[in-house]
Amino acid sequence: MRLVVWSDVLTSADVREVTLLGLLNLSVVFDCVDHDILLHGLEVAFGLTNTALEWIRWFLADRTQQVSYCGRLSPI
Questions:
Q1: Predicted model pTM
Q2: Dihedrals φ, ψ of 32, to 5°?
Q3: Could you list the residue range(s) of the whole structural domain that residue 46 is in?
Q4: Cα angle vertex 5, ends 38, 65, to 5°?
Q5: How far is CA 39 from CA 10, 32, 51, in A?
Q6: Per-residue pLDDT of the chain (76 residues; tens, 9 = 90+)
Q7: Domain count across the chain
């Protein structure tokens, strides 16, 4: 995926097109925000739909969190 994005950026630069890249770090979202509220906000405020919204919905689904300390895992 990264190479495809980089290739697209370079191709756009070659033809003097403006390129914008938005990055969204969702690594801690599932523990801090209600998923339905987040998804609704992304759809309404940022206009995300279809594939992009479904990818984020998939990313948030059935997530758990554990901590490993001194070789022991916390409960899920």
A1: 0.49
A2: -115, -25
A3: 2-73
A4: 40
A5: 31, 13, 13
A6: 567 788 888 999 999 998 887 777 766 666 678 889 989 998 999 898 898 889 888 888 887 778 889 999 988 7
A7: 1
